């Protein structure tokens, strides 16, 4: 099990997907309750389809990475985007160009990172990213909290082990904190210059379609918005072939 030790008590589990080193590496950022294993084989399939290498990892507190070291704050996505991710890239992909593929919280983290304009960043793909908190998000997370309390999310233990309780509580309590209702990263969007593919399912239970519209309209670079009919919060799991095709076309276009 590869572990990257960034500092004492701060180790990150990661997996590298082999591929040519002269092409950008795809870096996958999982959702708020996600992990490496919850992507299933989608990263490997996407990398194989376009002939690129890949990096999948568990953020601190998730999966097989070290536990959270302190209570999560409303700035947690900024911390992952601007502190943890750059250190991971510097250690594992020094001087390599890369693209970010972020799902849900991972998509928001990708946008925050994109606004910092790293010279190695070639593009960003988001699935169900949030740039502000909407009422549907709160309703969806409230329902997840109730499901967890009723024992209906026990499957998370297979992916997060001893991290499960702390990880879920940190995610849920932060998003449902009344102070977090004012969270927004809309102000960052004009600073993003990297090309964007902005995906979301039309039936996403955690976010309204206006999230896609806002990202595409306000980013500083080219953006392709795409709402997928008959799809919920996880396009890469619910419509894997269609999602893979859209992502591969976008990435190939960048390479061209």
UniProtKB/TrEMBL annotation:
Domain (AB hydrolase-1) spans: 26-243
Question: What Pfam families does the record tag this protein with?
Answer: Abhydrolase_6
Among InterPro entries, the record links this protein to: AB_hydrolase_1 (IPR000073), AB_hydrolase_fold (IPR029058)
Q: Which domain of life is it from?
A: Bacteria
Matching Gene3D superfamilies: alpha/beta hydrolase
**What is the protein name given in its UniProt record?**
Pimeloyl-ACP methyl ester carboxylesterase
Q: What is the lineage of its organism?
A: Bacteria, Pseudomonadati, Thermodesulfobacteriota, Desulfobulbia, Desulfobulbales
